[in-house]
Amino acid sequence: MADSAQALPRIVIIGAGFGGLWAASALARAPAQVTVIDERNYHLFQPLLYQVATAGLSPADIAAPIRGILSRQRNAYVILGHVVGIDKARRVVGLRDREVPYDWLIVATGARHAYFGHEEWAAFAPGLKNIDDATRLRRKILTALERAEQEPDSRERQRLMTFVVVGGGATGVETAGAIAELVKVALARDFRVINPAMSRIILIEAGPRVLPSFAASLSAAAQRALEKHGVEVRLGQPVTRCDEAGVMLGEERVACGVTIWAAGVMASPAAQWLEAEQDRAGRVLVDRNLTLPGHPEIFVIGDTASVRDEAGKPLPGVATVAKQEGKYVARVLLARLARKPEPPPFRYRDYGELATVGRNFAVVDFHWLRLTGRLAWFVWSVAHIYFLIGFRNRLVVAMDWIWAYLTFQRGARLITASNPDE
Amino acid sequence: MADSAQALPRIVIIGAGFGGLWAASALARAPAQVTVIDERNYHLFQPLLYQVATAGLSPADIAAPIRGILSRQRNAYVILGHVVGIDKARRVVGLRDREVPYDWLIVATGARHAYFGHEEWAAFAPGLKNIDDATRLRRKILTALERAEQEPDSRERQRLMTFVVVGGGATGVETAGAIAELVKVALARDFRVINPAMSRIILIEAGPRVLPSFAASLSAAAQRALEKHGVEVRLGQPVTRCDEAGVMLGEERVACGVTIWAAGVMASPAAQWLEAEQDRAGRVLVDRNLTLPGHPEIFVIGDTASVRDEAGKPLPGVATVAKQEGKYVARVLLARLARKPEPPPFRYRDYGELATVGRNFAVVDFHWLRLTGRLAWFVWSVAHIYFLIGFRNRLVVAMDWIWAYLTFQRGARLITASNPDE
To answer: To the nearest whole angstrom, how far is the Cα of A138 from the nearest Cα of chain B?
Structure first.
């Protein structure tokens, strides 16, 4: 790094998700050296990851290289590295083979899947967090059907053609809808022995309704849309076991070829690195300006932080929360750099939620406006294309969707891997 | 499979490359059951594979699922399976776990890389044959630069920033040009410590000129274009060793971070399966109607077959040869099915060759017309987009290219893999 940069305050951001990247961008004109550390070289538009898993989009459509995003931001440095710890006393972030010193630190390391103490389920019911998860799941879905096509035993064939999604939140609902469209529509004519339209897609939710954070009327509408797409929705039934043959619901065995976990997340190990107090989901408890108590130089944001709204309700682990927190932290730092008073405590502006079920149907809950059906789907498409980083991606996604809409095709259904049995 | 199909003659095609797929399509109206066996679920537009490796295109842009291509061809069956042998006496193809009987067999299994008896080089100098090869190479190139960015030792840094392409045929020339553009142009602003424009790209050719199958004037033009793009071209120097630190040219050590093999291919093991006579490159010697001598029911086509033109020159291992052979074999089978006389022996219609060096420059050798430069590049683009299977892919590729042309961006530069050190 240039010598002149050495004198500048060092802001280190761990994680280039929505929180970290929005903080970095908002610091573009800060008289500081902004270093972004991530273990992957891309920023991911996670809300559409299920589309990669179900062969609707290619990885590059929803991911952009971090270096590319920040290439014109002259005060930004990018380090591809795996964080192993944080030394609060010495103010350094420890990577596997080096240390990165900071004056101010922003921890935005996101969340990973939680299996409620059954980590061994992860092997049988993987979740969707990054591109590799998504391409692996795509491979599993397509390979299950390929095996079914060659399977002489009818019971085993039916098992291979059964797909279980655990968790009825937005991710689970969208994934189940997308699998139904892939299997029952896009692949309908592709096989000769099996009829993919006879596949079963089962969405399992432990609570009393899908999309629990939406208005109840929207939950009901989403459930009807899922069922119309051929998804079986099973409510009030927690999964008690996941293994290679399927899942258990209490005493009932549901045999399936692929299980997808969308039931719960756990914050990244940042709380351990920071030796900080955490909530039940592993999220770091922060002060009202998003700093670690007793450490005004350390900020924790996004899925890694436990933040509550005025009513005392924890903020959801969604992109908008992370982005607003990232921008807020940047404002705090800009004030400190300018030796001005810090802004008032963080307040989340809740614009609402959206979720889609296949093509043509979505539910939109803007609080002041609730929509379902085709119009909601249109709103959802425009919002998601708009929020995708990078003009090119927007164009490609728009075109892929228009194309898929017109033809029911899914262009990305490739099984890639050296070992298809993996 | 339907019982009614059992009475129909069974045509089995091994391999869904250009040869196998074109044969299958040409048999769409044949009163026969056409079974295509491939170990991957996609047909690949191999001529553009280097674009995936250099982050210009996504895998789904140049690959299409075989089942999707054949979904409307009602007499076509697809088996995803790994062939382990052929029993000519019993007329069955052996897969790992089942046998597929045939009345007529078309072997179109393509080629793999040959290391001139040094198979241990494969680990250090991988080639490009399928999507997984391409994404792995993309990862290696991008990871080498990420490591260079963090490497304190200047000599090791320069090694990591050196890319060697072995082989000066069309694949080698196009790959070297694309790496130069990726590294020196698209990534130019992405790093802060290293300057990717200082990377070295070295193209090594054992013979006296690049593109040996083109007219000599075009070879010279391609070499000048490569050098203008910053590629060092080294002719007349065979590689004598590949290892983790780079390659040896005689006694000279060329240290590099990534080595790509584009120097030679060897036919797939079909000759062993068939216990057939083969040429030095492992290709099966066939009769003039592309059948195995003594076995009129077995056809061998594409890179797997050794076929000569009227002048006695072996036909090159390119897509056009494979396609024409596939269509020819279909004509022979259609004649047999109709109990009509077989067509005259196979004759290759040579329309010429094209190769590109980065954007704006290509060489076109249509024999009656030779072009270099921007116009040739335009011809090359149109030809490649036209030949890509599937309208959607054509559209996406066209858009990606127009976009890349206008902005010098490469959208697909993602490092994906669970283990980035792999």
So the answer is: 12
Across the interface, whether the CB atoms of B59 and A63 are under 8 A apart is answered no
Q: What is the pTM of this model?
A: 0.87
pLDDT in tens, B220-270: 999 999 999 999 999 999 999 999 999 999 899 999 999 999 998 888 889
CB-CB under 8 Å, B414 with A63: yes
pLDDT score at B134: 94
Q: Return the amino acid letter for A340.
A: K
CA-nearest residue to B80 within chain A is A146
Neighbours of A214 (CB within 10 A): 24
Residue extents of the structural domains in chain B: 6-113+265-337, 119-259
Predicted ipTM of the assembly: 0.82
Instruction: Tell me the nearest-neighbour CA distance from A75 into chain B, angstroms.
Output: 10
CA distance A55 to chain B (A): 9
Where are the alpha helices (H) located in B33-129, listed in sequence order?
A: 49-53, 59-62, 66-70
Fold of A3-39+81-113+265-337: FAD/NAD(P)-binding domain (3.50.50)
Q: How far is CA B122 from the centre of its chain?
A: 16
| Residue in this structure with the two tokens 């020159």, named with its chain if needed | B313
Fold equal for A3-39+81-113+265-337 and A119-263: yes
Query: Does the beta-carbon distance from A403 to B392 stay under 8 Å?
Result: yes
B6-113+265-337 — its CATH code? 3.50.50.60
Q: What is the pLDDT of residues A378-417, one digit of tens each?
A: 888 888 877 776 655 666 666 666 666 665 556 566 666 5
Contact between B116 and B242 under an 8 Å Cβ cutoff? The reply is: no
Count contacts between A and B (CB, < 8 Å): 129
**A386 close to A47: Cβ distance less than 8 angstroms:** no
A272 within 8 A of A124, measured Cβ to Cβ: no
Task: Select from B393, B400, B414 the Cβ nearest to the Cβ of A42.
Answer: B414
Distance CA B37, CA B378 (A): 36
Topology (CATH level 3) of domain A119-263: FAD/NAD(P)-binding domain (3.50.50)
pLDDT value of position A225: 96
DSSP alpha helix (H) spans, A18-130: 18-26, 49-53, 59-62, 66-70
d(CA A345, CA A325): 11
CA neighbor of B84 nearest in space, from B14, B12, B13: B14
Distance CA B28, CA A330 (A): 63
Q: What are the catalytic residues of B?
A: 174
Determine the pLDDT at residue A418.
Answer: 42
Q: Which CATH number fits domain B119-259: 2.60.120.260, 3.30.1360.70, 3.50.50.60, 3.40.630.30?
A: 3.50.50.60
CB contact under 8 A, A58 and B63: no
Contact B65 A1 (CB under 8 A): no
Per residue, the 3-state secondary structure of B317-359, as one string, reads CCHHHHHHHHHHHHHHHHHHHCCCCCCCCCCCCCCCEEEECCC
Residues of B within 8 A of A93 (CB-CB) are none
State the residue for tokens 């299980």.
Answer: A259
Nearest CA to A58 among A308, A422, A418, A416? Answer: A416
Rg of chain A over Cα atoms, rounded to whole angstroms, equals 22
> Is A146 in Cβ contact with B80 (below 8 Å)?
yes
Which tens digit of pLDDT belongs to each residue from A337-382? 999 999 999 999 998 889 999 878 999 998 889 999 988 988 888 8
DSSP H or E run through A99: strand A99-101
Closest by alpha carbon to A105, among A132, A127, A125, A85?
A: A85
Residues of A marked as catalytic? 174
B97: closest CA of chain A, how far (Å): 10
Beta carbons within 10 angstroms of residue A179's beta carbon: 28
